[in-house]
Amino acid sequence: MSEIRSFEDLECWKKGRVLRKKISKLIKTFPSFEKFELVSQMRRASRSVTHNISEGYGRFYFRENAQFCRIARGSLYEIIDQLITANDDEYINDEEFLKLKSITNECIIILNGYIKYLIKNANNK
Length: 125
Hints:
- This protein has 125 residues and is mainly alpha-helical.
- It has a single domain (8-123), classed as 23S rRNA-intervening sequence (de novo design (two linked rop proteins)), CATH 1.20.1440.60.
- Helix content is 75%, strand content 0%.
- α1 (11-27) runs antiparallel to α2 (38-57).
- The radius of gyration is 15 Å and the shape is elongated.
């Protein structure tokens, strides 16, 4: 594993950034009447993932960092629900839904590993 010098080196942040960019591109295709509804919610949730990971990293305490990562994880689950809504409303097809859901689940798996690392280190201090 390479040395972590910044939150930008964290795999969970990198994967979250990829997801955020994909969501940003996707919501530009949604109908204009969704601008203040689903589009806004998806934008905020996707940004919340990387924002909370980076803020937690800056706290320097394992437990506090883990709590911010849990908030980021909650935002990832929120994105899955928003993708389901977008699919139900036919803004995205099944293939696109499954692709984005898979990326989101990958983010959750990586983030869960980081949370476990943080909790383990918090318990060892």
